Amino acid sequence: MLAKVFSATLQGVEGLEVEIEVNSASGVPAIVIVGLPDTAVRESRDRVTTAVVNSMLHWPRGRTTINLAPANVRKEGPAFDLPIALGLVGACEETPLPDLSTYCIAGELALDGTVRPIKGALSIALAARKQHRTAILLPAANAPEAALVDGIEVFGVRTLSETVQFLRGETRIQATPHTAAALLHQASAYSEAEDFADVRGQYHAKRAIEIAVSGGHNLLMLGPPGSGKSMLAKRIPSLMPPMSLSEAIETTKIHSTCGLLTGKNPAFVACRPFRSPHHTISDAGLLGGSSTPSPGEVSLAHNGVLFLDELPEFRRSTLEVLRQPLEDGLVTIARAAGSLTFPADFVLVAALNPCPCGFYGDRKRACRCSTMQVQRYRQRISGPLLDRIDLHLEVPAVSFSEMSRGEPGEASSQIRARVQNSRTLQTTRLAGGSRNNARMRPREIREHCTLSSECASLLQSAMQNLNLSARAYDRILKVARTIADLEASAQIAPIHVQEAISYRTLDRTLWQ
Questions:
Q1: DSSP H helical segments within 288-434, as ranges?
Q2: Nearest of 49, 270, 281, 321 to residue 148 by alpha carbon
Q3: Are the beta carbons of 61 and 93 closer than 8 angstroms?
Q4: How far apart are CA 380 and CA 408, in angstroms?
Q5: Measured between alpha carbons, how far is residue 225 from residues 221, 285, 325 in Å?
Q6: CA 362/CA 396 separation, integer angstroms
């Protein structure tokens, strides 16, 4: 007897439908799984049969062949437990099941028949809708996550026996309501826990951060310990416009693939992510990879902020892998079996001290580092990587008078309103092209960053005196365009170019 069940597997952050065929025949009792299963899928044979028995169900006792199609795609993870179990039950003449072709089914089974959560439920639901399945059966813990997808009914199940009874019509399970729009609306009311009103002084830094967020530019902060670099960085997401529904689903899909939406974590990532990996992170941890490529920190920061504190403490090889995502907004992981591409469009915020002890150039505290130590410390950051960071910012220590002032600083909501206006201008100007000024391509730069003779003269002088690269030239034009947008100016003025040039001074001073 032959039974067919539809499920899905993950390829990167995308779901791919898998057809599970279970055929029972006479012969020596055995269960054979074919179709490029990994170890977790092969081990499902023992989990599934034990769960079926403990659920008081029957399964074929002869030779049973389980085929996972397409056979040329490797199947990974325990999410095939539930569909394989239903296939075994349906292939048994004693307990046939109705037609399951309208369902996509996924879930891990415990030995007692309990259905455990899985990774990538959102990607699986998207794959099911693409294949025109009308319903999806998932662990109850994953149902709210899958319910973000409209156009398909989501049923959360808790046990194998409950699932069988539901498919036979013996019991009812309420479909999980689709709540994506409501959750996104709730998330638009930002938490004030991390607000720029808490930051005293640092007006120049706040201005640079506003520019960086407005245009999606990368930012490097240089300053002594305790100057507020981390405090500023943690508040950057509060300045970013609320995510659109498509951005929220894309971000949630990445976090779901990494298994970060189970337990106490919410099933929907509706606020801009902020990722701050430790400097001991590996290349694969930052970029993504391993033998079965999965998203790294740069992809988890997609549509948000990636904060690298103590930048020179990261291994140089680890920092160099940032070049591709900073340029393209994507990460491509190549392996012998093929390559996978993960989204990685984020704002990079990096922070470093001026020297190993942190007090080089400080007027109040003496630096203990030799000139050679300072030079080696700073040269851990390569020139090509520095070129890809649009704004370089010096963050000095805050004085006592500034810290002791009673009045709060400007609130995040006020800055965010200006950022939103700037983003709206960019969206209108770049309609059908790049998403923001930082992502403008050469043709768009030529079209939207035209300079007057006075502006061109200023930029030419800066290129010669600061010895800037051609990439730095494009970065200055993009930043100047963003500064003009913040002032709602159609043309780039000399004052905009001057301010943009001031954020490239570390191209010269960082190596001195």
A1: 297-300, 316-320, 323-328, 371-378, 383-387, 400-403, 412-429
A2: 270
A3: no
A4: 38
A5: 12, 27, 29
A6: 9
Residue-by-residue DSSP string for 174-195: PPPPP-HHHHHHHHTS--SSS-
Instruction: Assess whether pLDDT exceeds 90 at residue 124.
Output: yes
Q: What is the pTM of this model?
A: 0.88
User: Looking at the DSSP assignment, which residues form a beta bridge with residue 349?
Assistant: 219, 307
pLDDT digits (tens, 9 = 90+) for 370-380: 888 888 888 88
How big is the CA angle at 128 (ends 127 and 131), to the nearest 5 degrees? Answer: 90
Nearest to 137 by CA among 6, 269, 268, 4: 6
Q: What is the mean pLDDT of the chain?
A: 88
Three-class DSSP category at 24: strand
pLDDT in tens, 253-291: 999 998 888 766 677 888 899 999 999 999 888 988 776
Strands (E), 421-500: none
Rounded (5°) CA angle 130-133-137: 115
Instruction: Kindly list the distances between the CA atom of residue 32 and the CA atoms of 45, 66, 84, 151, in Å, as whole numbers in the listed order.
Output: 8, 6, 12, 36
Residue 339: band (very low, low, confident or very high) from pLDDT cuts 50, 70, 90: confident
The type of residue at 218 is: N
Tokens linked to 263: 């337990």
Identity of the residue numbered 60 = P
Q: Supply the DSSP symbol for 36.
A: S
Tokens of 55: 């659920």
List the domains of the chain with CATH numbers. 2-178 (3.30.230.10), 186-509 (3.40.50.300)
Q: Which distant-in-sequence residues (6+ apart) come within 8 Å of 56 by Cβ?
A: 161
